[in-house]
Structures are given as C-alpha cells and as structure tokens.
Amino acid sequence: MMITIKFRYCSLLDTLITKEMEQLFELRPQKDLLDPTFEGYKLSLDSLPVYKHEVPVAVEHLKPNEEQFSFQHVKTFGLHNHLIDDPWSDEVAFFISKDLQIFKINLHSLVSQSPEFKSVWQLPRHLESRDGWFNASLSFAGPELAVITDGGGVLHIVDTGIRTPANSHLWQAKFSSEDLGNSEPFKITHSMLNTTESNQSETLSVLALKVESIDKVESQIALSVFGCSEKETPFINCLEWVQYEHTDGHWSFKQLKRLAVPHGLDYASILSPGKALCLIAREPLGIIFDSKKDVAAPLANNETMQDETETKVAYTWTESPEEVTVWITFDKQTSKHDLVVKIESQALKVVYKHQTYLDGELAHPISVGSSTWTLSDGKLELILSKSDKSLSWNHLIQSDLRGRKVLDAETAADYESQAEGGGRPPVFSSEQLEECDDMPMDESCVFRFNGETNEFTHKAILSGQLLFFTQSAPGLAPAFCLRHDVDGLIWQPMGDELEQSWGCLHTAALQALGYIQASKEQRKFTVAPPNMTYAALCDAFSHVYIYRQSNCTSTGVEMVHRPTGRRVGNVARQQVLNIDSSEECLGALATNSFLLLLTSSSLFAIRVNSD
Q1: Domain contains 574
Q2: Model-level pTM?
Q3: If 0-12 CB within 10 Å is exposed, 13-18 middle and 19+ buried, where does residue 405 land?
Q4: Same-domain pairing of 51 and 83
C-alpha cells in the first residue's frame, strides 16, 4: 500500500515532483533591527521644499487595449514605474518619453531654476501603431551597459558610457534582437552582466515578463500540469530568461529559458553570478521551455524496445497512399492543454503533461503544412501527409516497437482495451486524493531557481504580504519588503558566491509600514531610499505620505517625552503633502535626499533630507 501511495505522488503534478528537490528555509528577522517599543509616528506640520519642473517631452503612458483585460495585464500596465534609478549612480535618474526618447535627469540641478534633462538615446520605432504594446522599459545591467525594450518585442543592448551628470556621452546600440518578442509585448524586470572565469567573454542575463494567451505560449510540456485552462487561466505570466554572450567585441544569442507562472509573478531577479533566479510567486509554477535542452521527461529507451510478441500497445497507426494516421488513447478527461504535439518533416513528438510519450524520427518525410491533429474524448488522432505518395511505411518511428499497424480505425479501436496500463502515463483525478494530500495554493513563496539544473532548489513560505521592492547595491539583486506583524522588513537575496546555504538576509526595518500601507486604498507606489531613513507612499493622485524613521537625523526639532520629561533627539514622524497636479502619478523614486514624483508633464522633487 505504501508503494502505491508513493507512485501516486510521483505522477500527479509537476509541482509535486519538484517538492522533494526543494530545500525549505526560513526568513528569520534580526532582533536588533526590530523596535518592540515603537510608539508610533508623530504628525509633523513642517513644510518640505517642493520643486516642480516641466519635462521636455510628455512621459509615455500606454494603457491596455480591449483584448488585454486580465488581472495580469492591469497589474503590468497600472503598476509600471516610469522613473528609473541607476544602482551605479545616485546622482541621476531616467524616464522614457512618449516619442521613445530616454532622458537623463541631473538630480542636483532640480533645486535650481534650470533643471538638466538630457536626451541620451532615441529608441527606434519599427511600427507606427503601438496598440497592445507594453510601456517601454529600461534596466541597467552594468556600469556602462543597459538593456532597453520598446515594449513591442524588440530588445536593445546599449553602451551607455559612465552615467554621471557631467558625462555627455550619447548612448550607442550594440545589438538588437527579437529573440524575446516575436512581436509579442514584454517588460524587462531585471538584468545583470557577468564576466566568465577566464575573462574571455561576458554574459548578459535579462529577465522579461510577458502576459500571454494560453494558446500562444510556446512550451515543451503541457500547461495543464500547472492547472492552466482556457476557462480558469486564459492569460498567464511567462518569465523569459535570455542570455547573450559578448566575445571578440560582438554580442550573440546564447540561451532562452521560459517559466510559466499562472497565478502572477510578484518579484523576479537574477542572482549573482547569473546562474540562478529569485522569484516570489504562488504555486504552481515551473520551467516550460529551454532552447538548449528539452524540459519534458524523456522517453526511456527500454520503453521503446519491447518485444513484438507483447500485447501492450502504446499507439496504433495505419496508412493510405496519401497519408499516415496515428491514434493514441488517453484518459477521457484529457484536454488539448494536457498535450504538446510537435510535427516536423522528419520527426514526431507527443508530450503528455510533463512526460514524453512519443518521440523519434519518422520512417519517411511528411508535409508539415498539410498535417494536423485532433483530440476527442481522450483519443488523439494525428494525420500525417506523405511527401512521397509512392512509398509504403513499414514502421512509424525509428526503433520504437510499441506501435501496431492496423487496417483502419475500427481495427485500432480493438487495441484500446489492450493499451490500458500499457506504458501510458497514469492519470488520476482529485477523487483519488486523500485529505492529507490536499495542498493550499494561496500562499506566496520565495523560490531559488537553479538555471544549470532547471530545478527549484530553495523555498520559503511567506508569512506576510509583499509591500514593495527596491534597488540594492550594484551587482546585487533588488531587495524586497515583506510585512512582519505591523512592520515592513527589508530582505536581501544572497548571491551564489557565498560559501553557505542560500537564503535572504534581513537588512532593515520600516516601523509599522505593513499596518500603514494596508490602510492606504489609493496607494500606487511605495518607495524607500538606500539608507532606509524614510518610506513614502504615493497615491495615484495628489497625496504623498512620508514616514521618517527614528534613525533619520533630519528632523529639525528636539522632542520631549511628556510622561517622563526625557528629551528625545529623534522621533519617527509622518508628513503629508498635497501635490499641485491633477495628473496621475506615473513614477516614484526615493534617494537619500530627494523624493521624486513623475506625472505625464511634470517632475516634482521633494527635498526630504538636507544631509
């Protein structure tokens, strides 16, 4: 009985298979960063200097079209931050205009009457209409390298030079590619440049987020293993991890991996040195495509070499002068999303969920354009049009003896009863699961994905909500903020260079931020500077809430604790600002000194700290 239960576990879903490989870890807060005596924020009526400047060209702001109606589309468009910071320079920021110019902002000039907005590059426009495109996105992969997309399917690798306010170097495109797009919109979420151990070449890793119709996703395994269906998940998030190689002064495509995340992706980053990813998402999720190797479970050689006298039949087939017809029987509840069928001129492959069922070289060439397949009541029928009508086929697949050649469809039906249990991947329904097998699918988790093995190696279940994520030091993955009790805790994913078990380090705490953010129904952006001395919550329109931490020295006032008379040098303070604009907030960026807000026509610079 115990053997049977173990067999069922290994055959249910891809998510169950990978769980045995994952190492569970905990997100453990550092007690010395927590403040159990925190009494709250004091409302401050002190005014803050606000500098308003008109941008040279209106900011790009695309919205979903009528066909982009899913929650994933709304999230991708609505929460897009049009202000881009630079991990290698805290003196500049960037935005992309509606005519696809990239502007560099000199932050020091924002306190003057003549702010510096410099156009550093013009994205090429390969189409006039941008209907259905995502907003253009920009990511800095290195101190002199950036990756940019127009939002419509083209990726550019650009030499930026050193990005300081004084550097007038104009950017130059070094490589443009449609490997990610195929005319489908995508958004860049993170990028990283790494040098190989021999220093002979460089590898650029880029993460791109897509929201695709389930019928258009290119996958090497069936999407049904992740619970995908046209009714429940007509659109799914696909995270594409593409790598480019720089050798002898030239960039070239290296590899593409695609992960399916049906229930939405909250965070994705590349871990140094570019061989693994950190993700925050809900299960199930997993890899569905690799350009260098097939991710489907291979068909074992001993499964194709059974003796002709055996009665087990995996598939039946017949031929006429014009075509070859193949029948494979699965469970009656099988849908087209359980199958991946790949028909080539000289090869045929059928994948059932994550398991390869039929794969090999055909006996003779076929015409792919006139070949087709259908599925009805669990019975797959493939019609392969012969290229040479004069040839007779002695077998279907080279070295695969599991098939039986029959006279017609009626004869093929006689073998269906013999095929039961004969090599077909076992199919289970939810009725076979016991109560202890039931798994909650509502929890978000932090995952580490190993790109060398295509496996999830580490997992931590989140006990609190993801509040926001923020840029880290150069070469590190962005940090993310999770709610812990009422606070917001900053976590830094570790790189893989450290000789210890992978995890996330607790680096800072923002007092009561989890409680505060839950009460802000109109909030669009939450940001915090690198030194974590304050946090800012920005509404879609007008209002900004600034929460200074008690370690922020720019309070400008000495407070006294009334019950005890104790003088308190620095206290946590709240400040509320009303922005003089009727336009929607399109971007927010926090530096140690400034809080920047971007609308379609204006940039607001709020001087938060003077030190």
Answers
A1: yes
A2: 0.82
A3: middle
A4: no
Within this chain, do residues 65 and 164 fall inside the same structural domain, yes or no? yes
Distance between CA atoms of residues 573 and 550, nearest Å: 8
CA distance 239 to 250: 26
Q: Is the peptide bond before 298 cis (omega within 30 degrees of 0)?
A: no
Residues 258, 333: one domain? no
Task: Return the CATH number at 369.
Answer: 2.60.40.790
Task: Output the six-digit token pair for 185.
Answer: 């919109």
Q: Give the pLDDT of residue 37.
A: 87
Domain boundary among 144, 161, 181: 181
Distance CA 104, CA 121 (A): 9
pLDDT-based confidence at residue 401 (cuts at 50, 70, 90): confident
Query: Are 158 and 190 found together in one domain?
Result: no
Confidence of residue 415 (pLDDT cuts 50, 70, 90): low
Percent of the chain with pLDDT over 70: 85
Task: Determine, yes or no, domain membership for 330.
Answer: yes
Pair 403, 395: CB distance under 8 Å: yes
The answer as to whether 175 is a domain residue is yes
Overall number of domains in the chain: 4
In contact, 84 and 60? CB cutoff 8 Å: no
3-class secondary-structure state, position 70: coil
Structural domain span for residue 246: 186-298+441-462
Give per-residue pLDDT as tens, 233-258: 789 999 999 999 999 889 999 999 99
Q: Residue written as tokens 């070239």?
A: 252
Quick one: 151 and 175 in the same domain? yes
Rounded Cα–Cα distance for residues 595 and 587 (Å):
11
Q: What one-character DSSP code corresponds to residue 263?
A: T
- Give the pairing of strands 145-149 and 137-142: antiparallel
Q: pLDDT value at position 413?
A: 67
Look at residue 333 in the predicted model and tell me its pLDDT.
Answer: 87
Statement to judge: residues 68 and 164 lie in one domain: yes
Query: At 187, which helix (H) or strand (E)?
Result: strand 187-195
Residue 131 domain-assigned? yes
Residues 258, 355: one domain?
Answer: no
Q: What is the mean pLDDT of the chain?
A: 86
Phi/psi at 109 (nearest 5 deg)?
Answer: -80, -10
Residues 280 and 384 in one domain: no
Asked whether residue 409 carries a pLDDT value surpassing 80, the answer given is: no
pLDDT in tens, 347-375: 999 999 888 888 889 989 999 999 999 99
Strand 155-159 with 145-149, pairing: antiparallel
